[in-house]
Amino acid sequence: DAGVTQSPTHLIKTRGQHVTLRCSPISGHKSVSWYQQVLGQGPQFIFQYYEKEERGRGNFPDRFSARQFPNYSSELNVNALLLGDSALYLCASSPSPAQGSYEQYFGPGTRLTVT
Amino acid sequence: AQSVAQPEDQVNVAEGNPLTVKCTYSVSGNPYLFWYVQYPNRGLQFLLKYITGDNLVKGSYGFEAEFNKSQTSFHLKKPSALVSDSALYFCAVWRLGGSYIPTFGRGTSLIVHP
Question: Which of A41, A48, A106 sits opposite B43 (nearest CB)?
Answer without folding.
Answer: A106
